[in-house]
């Protein structure tokens, strides 16, 4: 059914008994043109765009849990395109443009709010770095504005501007950035893909990948063997384990990234704010809770929970930036399994195996990239060649010496 204000009005008078399920619960068929491993945002978006843009509809998305049970439901909801390097900026700007029309296209409220993001800087070197980044953004047609200290004080009076070690000197603003409801994005793409005939198969874990004559013929699952012409991996932090089933050793590591939410407060933080003296980022949800996080835990893990030392570090950064946070109670914490690449940038490419395709290495950037990731991965699967905004995101760039090192820290995944 199509959602609208009229349908809400009608259902209210009908006791809300007429709503239909958002998607079907099909049994897996014996064979598909494309199987996508991973029922998160990227896998569901790939299935949706394959069906909508490229007319491939004999597709199965297989998910070992429920749809959206992975990183897409375990992040801090930030959407932005304020990148600097040529391999990243066009891609994330393409994604932001897709975000801007996503709710109308999917007929689903993903709560996309373009409230703007402000990256704070604390010294002259950081200021110069943000000037460079802002110029790079504007060269790609992306708006950016450098804010001085006085402008920030008017916008964000609750920040600790006079900290002895980390005085706030200004910030870089991208007005079109913002937040979205993380799991609603997965539900919207799932509903859209289902309407186009895609089979969404939940509680179906891949246990093996069958190959013959160098090509993939299908996947072994907890619900039996399913054959396919093409296999696409979009398993986020579990990509290494799934890739090993096909004999791939990938240049990624899996790390835990924690996130937190406070009790509900009256509106107090109008933007997304990131701390230049650390990696702390914060915004306020529609329910009033403050949603925030910082660095990964720094050790490899597949656990969807983090350690207390990192939680303490996150709280210290938050209170350093906003002293008033010390009076707010944290209600919940969770962790996502991040697939950290060697250079901190994603991989969307074919693999050395003929009909096996790879989407991984999203580090901190996976949620904001969801629409573009799905579109570009679908383009690759359907046409056999990279979309022009994703040509730099090749798997062999490390071998060729063309990393996309946005953070400038080299080939150390734990520092990205």
UniProtKB/TrEMBL annotation:
InterPro entries: FAD-dep_OxRdtase, FAD/NAD-bd_sf, Rhodanese-like_dom, SoxB
Compartments it resides in: Cytoplasm
Gene3D superfamilies: D-Amino Acid Oxidase, subunit A, domain 2 (3.30.9.10), FAD/NAD(P)-binding domain (3.50.50.60)
Keyword hit for Cytoplasm: yes
Top-rank lineage group of the source organism: Bacteria
Keywords attached to this entry: Cytoplasm, FAD, Flavoprotein, FMN, Nucleotide-binding, Oxidoreductase
Pfam families on file: DAO
Enzyme class: oxidoreductase
Catalyzed reactions per annotation: sarcosine + (6S)-5,6,7,8-tetrahydrofolate + O2 = (6R)-5,10-methylene-5,6,7,8-tetrahydrofolate + glycine + H2O2; sarcosine + O2 + H2O = formaldehyde + glycine + H2O2
Cofactor(s) in the UniProt record: FMN; FAD
Family: Belongs to the SoxB family.
NCBIfam families associated with the record: soxB
Protein name as catalogued: Sarcosine oxidase subunit beta
Source organism: Shinella lacus
């Amino acid at each position: 059914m199509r959602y609208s204000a009229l349908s809400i009005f009608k259902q209210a008078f009908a006791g809300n008994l007429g709503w239909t399920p958002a998607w079907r619960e099909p049994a897996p068929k014996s064979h598909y043109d494309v199987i996508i491993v991973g029922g998160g945002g990227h896998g569901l978006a790939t299935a949706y765009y394959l069906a909508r843009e490229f007319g491939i509809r004999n597709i199965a998305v297989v998910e070992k849990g429920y749809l959206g049970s992975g990183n897409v439901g375990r992040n801090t909801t930030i959407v932005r395109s304020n990148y600097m390097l040529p391999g990243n900026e066009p891609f994330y700007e393409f994604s932001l443009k897709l975000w801007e029309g996503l709710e109308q296209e999917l007929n689903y409220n993903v709560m996309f709010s373009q409230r703007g993001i402000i990256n704070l800087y604390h010294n002259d070197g950081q200021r110069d770095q943000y000037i460079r980044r802002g110029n790079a953004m504007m060269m790609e047609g992306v708006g950016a504005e450098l804010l001085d200290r006085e402008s920030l004080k008017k916008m964000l009076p609750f920040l600790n501007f006079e900290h002895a070690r980390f005085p706030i000197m200004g910030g870089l603003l991208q007005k079109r950035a913002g937040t979205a409801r993380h799991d609603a994005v997965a539900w919207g793409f799932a509903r859209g893909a289902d309407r186009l005939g895609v089979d969404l198969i939940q509680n179906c874990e891949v246990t093996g990948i069958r190959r013959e004559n160098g090509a993939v013929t299908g996947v072994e699952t907890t619900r039996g063997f399913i054959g396919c012409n093409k296999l696409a991996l979009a398993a986020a932090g579990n990509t290494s384990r799934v890739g090993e089933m096909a004999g791939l050793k990938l240049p990624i590591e899996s790390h835990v990234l924690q996130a937190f939410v406070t009790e509900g407060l009256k509106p107090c933080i109008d933007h997304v704010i990131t701390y230049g003296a650390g990696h702390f980022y914060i915004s306020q949800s529609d329910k009033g809770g403050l949603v925030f996080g910082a660095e990964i835990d720094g050790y490899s893990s597949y656990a969807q929970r983090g350690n207390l030392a990192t939680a303490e570090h996150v709280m210290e950064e938050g209170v350093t930036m906003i002293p008033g946070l010390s009076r707010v109670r944290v209600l919940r914490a969770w962790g996502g399994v991040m697939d950290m690449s060697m250079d901190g940038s994603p991989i969307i490419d074919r693999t050395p195996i003929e009909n096996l395709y790879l989407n991984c290495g999203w580090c901190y950037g996976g949620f904001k990239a969801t629409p573009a990731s799905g579109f570009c991965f679908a383009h690759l699967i359907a046409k056999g060649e990279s979309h022009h905004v994703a040509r730099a995101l090749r798997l062999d760039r490390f071998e060729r010496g063309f990393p996309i090192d946005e953070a400038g820290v080299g080939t150390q995944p734990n520092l990205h």
